[in-house]
């Protein structure tokens, strides 16, 4: 811990980071050297400022399926050229919002950086969403233009100007030599850099405003963690690691994928992009491109443990798996370590509302703390708050995790009420997750106070599915719960009360929901019941339904 921090907070326990007087946990990591907040700077400019001179002699981006690579000089030139076209031809200006709807292709990081470099707000969206989901997102973020792949363009609201990625119009934005480079714009770090869509527990998605300062702080944290890991390796007498090659199987519209691409460029690494995730293709990519870092959700580790193909492939280059998106159980972590003893598991925890990582393990020793998501990131503070009493708790005590620091979002776009309920007047972000810190400052996620279902790392809000189900004429009542699944983490399972006389089937229920939502939100299991258990206030008692679901399966297995 930094000496100045020890002086300022003399009562901080150096092991746990807990200050009994302030009832607050402080990061025990050394602080980051963030640029002054008053200095105008975009996240893109900051990332580029960190690149070595001369530029790294390895690819910035590689397309997994084809092997097409983009060097760092070509990447920077493409970003600057496209930024000029966005400014002079499209007429984009700082503060404008641009919706980006595309799978993870080489064009997408170039477009993200070009937009951020001129102060335009990037708003990445899932290309598998439905027209009604896009309509809601557009209502929230109010983009002045959309950049979308051809197969998605027709699903976007017609009043939004759309430029098709890959079209002649799009190519001219970057290749027309008559266009002057954009002028230098003074973008404040406090300005919004991106609007990311996050599912809420009360219904439809929210639009999370992330600032340039948020992203700069996250890049700083990644650098700090990398320096710490390198120092620990050197002290242990290990050979220096090769340059990082990151396979990015996570979509770039997800906060995890968005941040991994930004991090990779800032650190001068190579990012191998997968347009859509396929397990066997991912194993091939690790072998072909000598991937060293794989960010993944827990179901991927389960698949690797069980896969004969994973044992046949040469995965010797893989050094680290960065686990996020959902909690990783101790049993899975231990099984993975037994099968792949040379791969270090780095666990982390973050939210869209925290722009990414709140905590992570750093180095092999911390990675042995199975079940923990690591220690609080640099420059962050946290509280564990009793949800019932509001009491601020100490190490070993469970409560809702609150976080404060430079990574906390600006707020929810177009929803002041939700912002006020999530970030208080002192800047504390209420995560909605039940957690505790142990005596050594490791954070453990016990359960979600929020009711989001985590399907393969995606967030699925039960209330959204319930609203759709309840609109069906043959459904009297419905509830959706997370059903545990080793492969996916959790499955959306619907409990349905049919209308009298209805013979509605499981497949009809699944098909009805599938027409209204993106594929990852589909209902995967259905049970028909006579009533949905609810509290006196009418709130669905999900825990009771989960127990009921597990009991049903247990009973069937005994037959």
Please tell me about this protein's structure.
This protein has 559 residues and is α/β, with parallel strands linked by helices. It has three domains: 71-187, Rossmann fold (3-Layer(aba) Sandwich), CATH 3.40.50.980; 212-448, ANL, N-terminal domain (Rossmann fold), CATH 3.40.50.12780; 458-558, GMP Synthetase, Chain A, domain 3, CATH 3.30.300. It has 18 helices and 28 strands. Helix 2 runs parallel beside helix 9, helix 3 (72-88) packs across helix 7 and helix 11 (298-306) crosses helix 13. 46% of the residues are buried. Residues 56-412 form the AMP-dependent synthetase/ligase domain. Pfam families: AMP-binding, AMP-binding_C.
Number of domains: 3
Q: Number of DSSP strands?
A: 28
Structural class: alpha/beta
Give me the oligomer status: single chain
Largest sheet: 12 strands, mixed
What descriptors fit this protein?
4-stranded mixed sheet; 3 domains; Rossmann fold; GMP Synthetase, Chain A, domain 3; trans-cinnamate-CoA ligase activity; 559 residues; globular
Question: What does the secondary structure layout of this molecule look like, with pairings?
Answer:
Elements: H1 3-8, E1 18-19, E2 24-26, H2 43-49, E3 59-63, E4 69-71, H3 72-88, E5 97-101, H4 107-117, E6 121-125, H5 131-141, E7 145-148, H6 150-153, E8 162-164, H7 168-175, E9 192-198, E10 206-211, H8 212-235, E11 245-248, H9 255-266, E12 270-273, H10 279-289, E13 293-296, H11 298-306, H12 308-312, E14 320-323, H13 330-339, E15 344-351, E16 356-360, H14 363-367, E17 374-376, E18 381-385, E19 392-393, E20 399-404, E21 411-412, H15 416-422, E22 429-437, E23 442-448, E24 453-455, E25 458-460, H16 462-470, E26 475-485, E27 489-498, H17 506-514, E28 525-528, H18 542-558
Parallel strand pairs: 3-12, 5-6, 5-7, 7-8, 11-12, 13-14, 14-15, 27-28
Antiparallel strand pairs: 1-2, 2-18, 3-4, 9-10, 10-21, 15-16, 16-17, 17-23, 18-19, 18-20, 20-22, 22-23, 24-25, 26-27
Helix pairs in contact: 2-8, 2-9, 3-4, 3-7, 8-9, 11-13
């Amino acid at each position: 811990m930094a000496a100045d921090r020890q002086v300022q907070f003399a009562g901080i326990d150096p092991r746990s980071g807990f200050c009994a007087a302030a009832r607050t946990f402080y990061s025990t990591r050394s602080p980051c050297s963030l640029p002054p907040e008053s200095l105008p700077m975009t996240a893109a400019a900051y990332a580029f400022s960190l690149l070595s001179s001369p530029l790294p002699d390895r690819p910035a981006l590689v397309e997994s399926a084809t092997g097409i690579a983009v060097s760092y000089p070509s990447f920077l030139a493409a970003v600057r050229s496209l930024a000029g076209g966005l400014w002079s031809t499209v007429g984009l200006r700082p503060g404008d919002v641009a919706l980006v709807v595309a799978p993870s292709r080489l064009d997408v990081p170039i477009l993200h950086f070009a937009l951020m470099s001129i102060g335009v707000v990037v708003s990445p969206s899932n290309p598998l969403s439905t027209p009604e989901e896009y309509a809601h997102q557009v209502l929230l973020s109010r983009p002045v233009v959309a950049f979308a792949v051809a197969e998605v363009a027709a699903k976007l609201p017609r009043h939004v100007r759309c430029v098709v990625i890959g079209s002649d119009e799009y190519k001219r934005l970057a290749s027309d030599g008559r266009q002057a480079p954009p002028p230098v714009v003074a973008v404040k770090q406090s300005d919004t850099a991106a609007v990311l869509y996050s599912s809420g527990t009360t219904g439809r998605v929210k639009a999370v405003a992330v600032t340039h300062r948020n992203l700069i702080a996250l890049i700083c944290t990644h650098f700090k963690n990398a320096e710490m890991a390198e120092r620990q390796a050197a002290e242990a007498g290990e050979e220096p690691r090769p340059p990082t090659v990151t396979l990015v199987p996570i979509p770039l519209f997800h906060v995890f994928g968005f941040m991994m691409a930004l991090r990779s460029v800032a650190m001068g690494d190579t990012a191998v992009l997968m347009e859509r995730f396929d397990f066997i293709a991912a194993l091939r990519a690790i072998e072909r491109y000598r991937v060293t870092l794989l960010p993944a959700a827990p179901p991927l580790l389960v698949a690797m443990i069980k896969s004969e193909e994973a044992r046949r492939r040469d995965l010797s280059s893989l050094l680290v798996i960065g686990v996020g998106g959902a909690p990783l159980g101790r049993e899975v972590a231990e099984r993975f370590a037994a099968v792949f003893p040379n791969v270090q598991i780095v666990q982390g925890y973050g939210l869209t509302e925290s722009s990414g990582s709140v905590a992570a393990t750093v180095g092999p020793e911390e990675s042995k703390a199975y079940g923990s998501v690591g220690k609080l990131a640099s420059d962050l503070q946290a509280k564990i708050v009793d949800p019932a009493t509001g009491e601020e708790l100490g190490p070993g005590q469970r409560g809702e995790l609150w976080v404060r620091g430079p990574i906390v979002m600006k707020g929810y776009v177009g929803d002041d009420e939700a912002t006020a309920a999530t970030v208080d007047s002192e800047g504390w972000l209420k995560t909605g997750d039940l957690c505790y810190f142990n005596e050594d400052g490791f954070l453990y996620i016990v359960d979600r106070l929020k009711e989001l279902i985590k399907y393969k790392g995606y967030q699925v809000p039960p209330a959204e599915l319930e609203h759709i189900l309840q609109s069906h004429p043959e459904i009297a009542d419905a509830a959706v719960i997370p059903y545990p699944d080793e492969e996916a983490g959790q499955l959306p399972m619907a409990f349905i009360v049919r209308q009298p006389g209805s013979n509605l089937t499981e497949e009809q229920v699944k098909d009805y929901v599938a027409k209204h939502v993106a594929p990852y939100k589909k209902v995967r299991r259905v049970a028909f019941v006579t009533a949905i258990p609810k509290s006196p206030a009418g709130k669905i008692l999900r825990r009771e339904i989960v127990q009921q679901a597990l009991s049903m399966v247990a009973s069937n297995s005994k037959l």
